[in-house]
Give the backbone structure.
Amino acid sequence: LHGNLLIGLSDGKEMIRVALSGRNPQILVIPPRIYHCFKNYWHRDSLMCNLPTEVYDADDEGRVPFEELGVGSPW
């Protein structure tokens, strides 16, 4: 990781936010059926490594706008 990222996580009922920094690299495991998004909050580009556990399937994407989750904005 390089830079600073804010990660929004939701189970559809409540939202938590996790800040990650390149100064203190960490591994964040997101369980199945947890909605998630991320935002760069650094003045320069950030870099993260994403290691999915399954091959991407567009039919199984399950994207839902946060406004529809009823938990408010992730930011």
Notes: The CA atoms of residues 20 and 28 lie 9 Å apart. The helical segments are 66-69.
